[in-house]
Amino acid sequence: MSDPIEPSTSSSSTKDPALLIHPRREPFEHGLLPIPKLIFTDPTQTLIPLKQKLIEQSSSHRVNSAAISEVLQISIDHARLVLDTLASVLHSESDPLLKSKPDVVDEVGADVNDLVLFLYIQSYKKLLPRTHKDSAAVADVWPSTSAFDGYLSALSPLQLVRSNSRRFVPSQADEEAHQLSYLQKHLANIVSLLAEPVEGEGEESLVLTMEKFEHLGFLFYFGDKGSEGYHLGQYAPFFANSDPDMPAVPVPAAQVHDWVLQNIVSSLENISERISPKENGPPSSSDQDVPMADACTSTNKGSICVRGPSFIEGISKSSLIKQASDLKGSSVKVLNCHDSVIYILAPLRYATVYGCSDTTIVLGAVGKAVRIEHCERVHVITAAKRICIANCRECMFFLGVNQRPLIVGDNHKLQVAPYNTFYGQLEEHMNEVGIDATINRWNEPLALGVVDPHDSLSHPAGVSDAQAESGSHLDPEQFTNFLIPNWYGGESEGSTKDNPFPLPDIYVASQQRNQNNLGEVKQLLREAPLEENRKRELSTALHVYFKDWLYASGNIRQLYCLQGE
């Protein structure tokens, strides 16, 4: 089964896009954990006995945190992290783990087959970023070097990303090809983890039942509309016509391997044919990088992709709003934005923020996972099931999260605070994606290692590991509510009239003190024993100082953008 088959000789360019196989991006983008004990040098030899031990823990073939902790020899906190991370990237929406309330997750547990596939891909290495087509233009947009650079020998996250030839995140096609190539290389091992021997015929006669075959849907899907809605077995010739009332006959593992491998080869050929013309000629409009914006950005700016995530890339010194009707799909990536305010007021499954600086980003309701990476001086406000923060500096996170914030990599001077905003449809969006406003674990960050074994760019081989710097709690005296403008009047109306996440008492008390202080100042100004002309001078001075603050803080742009709308 380990011998590769010959690639198909038919032209992949004529193949129906609906019949092409794709890697599921979610496990590779949101499912990798830098926990050394989860990364095996020989995954098959290690995971097959581990799988058997896991099965022995439960007659239902589902395991909880305690079983994972015992078998993998990791802490109970890390075991629960494995369980929660796996749940966030599962392919089957019908899996009971996804429908479980946080307090009963351990009672439900994870399917052993999904868990071993999740553990196997922990050996994946991310693709190195590509070079931006217009590095000079990018260099003009980015701010000066970080204040940290005077006394830290290591490069800051953005310097690292922008070093040398101004590297940027790989293209979607490059990442898909890289993920497919990884799965192609490891396919024989992956299939063997799901296979089982025919009774009485020994280990050489491995077969896959239809149920086990469907678990490959954790890693693959067919078609150009996304990974939801169809079972993998519908595309496999050996299961496609199975009688739903009768159990399908198990298929030899070698036959499954060869069929999947043929489809991977065909998809890689298709990707190669799509990429080659772009390298030798002018790029098509759908593949060009989004130009840097220099003025107020309306809702039709930014790159949107019909298949896969919507992109907001290269926004600079602007304000931008996206609502659900502006987005294609249920995932968003905010890339390389600078000195801007970005509102994404929509129900989402996944969100990624990468390589941004001096920007405020509001993410509506994210039901699966948020990842913030390689950012500096960014404020992120989000209601989400879970969030991972990696390689960031001087960033603030205002969070309404149902799981512990995960902090990994080389971080410095991070601050976390409770959620501080709302918009009309927020609670509707939270209910749609399954976020519970009664649970907010913003103040329980979990820090893992500084070295990410999946990322050879940030952490070259040989660098010693240490625990990542965690986030400190924002001083309650510095906590303020964030007001989202009502950009479109009636279109954004909804039932949410206040922050749905209860604030901790210490923050409520601080807000009350600030309100009282403001009231006292207003009262003193009203009762000040001044002549009318002196009162006018005082009023004028206050307006001048306020206007100066608007310009110094950059908030004046938001007012211009609101007027422009």
From TrEMBL:
Ranges for region Disordered: 272-293
Keyword Cytoplasm recorded: yes
Principal place of residence: cytoplasm
Keyword annotations of the record: Cytoplasm, Cytoskeleton
Compartments where located: Cytoplasm, Cytoskeleton, Microtubule organizing center, Centrosome; Cytoplasm, Cytoskeleton, Spindle pole
Entry similarity comment: Belongs to the TBCC family.
Name this protein carries in UniProt: TBCC domain-containing protein 1
UniProt source species: Prunus mume (Japanese apricot)
